[in-house]
Amino acid sequence: MRKSAGFTLLEILIAIVIFAVLATIVYSTFNAVISKTNAIKAETSIDEMAAACLTRICRDLRAAYVEQYPLYKPPGSGESPDPYRFAADVDYVGTEQFSELRFASTEHLPVSTGRPENEFASAELAQIRYHVDKSSASKSGYVLKRGDTPFPYDISANPAAEPDPETDPVLCTGIDAFNLTCIDADGNASESWDSDAQMFDYATPRAVRVELKIKTRKGARFFSTRISLPTYREPLKDVKQ
Predict the structure, then answer these.
(1) Is-contact 161 153, C-beta < 8 A?
(2) Domain boundary assignment for the chain
(3) Per-residue model confidence (pLDDT) at position 143
(4) Relative to the CA of 163, which of 21, 113, 145, 225 has its CA 20 to 30 Å away?
């Protein structure tokens, strides 16, 4: 009588071991591909975010509004500052230093904040603010915000009209550095600027260099650009000559 064919216990164990080895190799390869794909997507996302951020800053600055002489008059002692002044400074946020910038621009972007805009406000002209704030999602992280408040508003007559920087929308996350350099007609660079100040002879910059550093899992990524301002105000001494 012929015995029926079948697998021995040893053959079954060997088959299980071979299958486990092949499955491990396939899983490791697949996991490596997925991890690399996710890393590439993350880097691409950061590049896109940085590019969109710099593009927005460029558009705002190239559409900057500057009052010219004789319409512009340097403020006297006790007088309100020019509402359309160009002001850049460096300030602490937590333990880190970041640049901040305020200027008037025709690149107003209407954003609903749950309250109606001033019915007399210009549909185009607005005060633009760029500043860094602590991230609400990370205790140690920072975000770049863009404020956009349409003109006119009289802060001296109504202190409540002063825009609240806390409510400004987030433009870029993972900020490690945000540095601005203002450049005058002679090529001199300054981290701060005030077009209402005598030390700048009431002029506005000719160009602004923007440096942005964003944190990633592999370290920080650096981005920079230089924007020439089509509209600017000459120093007062040059106007008087």
Answers:
(1) yes
(2) 42-240
(3) 94
(4) 225
Per-residue pLDDT tens over the stretch 12-36: 888 888 888 888 887 777 676 666 5
pLDDT at 154 over 60: no
231 vs 161: CA distance, rounded Å:
27
Give tens-digit pLDDT for 103-119: 999 998 865 444 444 44
Cα 146 from Cα 132, distance rounded (Å): 9
CB 144 within 8 Å of CB 53: yes
DSSP class of 185: T
User: Would you state the structure tokens that stand for residue 131, as one six-digit string?
Assistant: 């500043």
Alpha-carbon distance of 162 to 233, in angstroms, equals 25
> Which element (helix H / strand E) includes 210?
strand 207-216
Instruction: Tell me how far apart the alpha carbons of residues 184 and 202 are, in angstroms, rounded to a whole number.
Output: 12
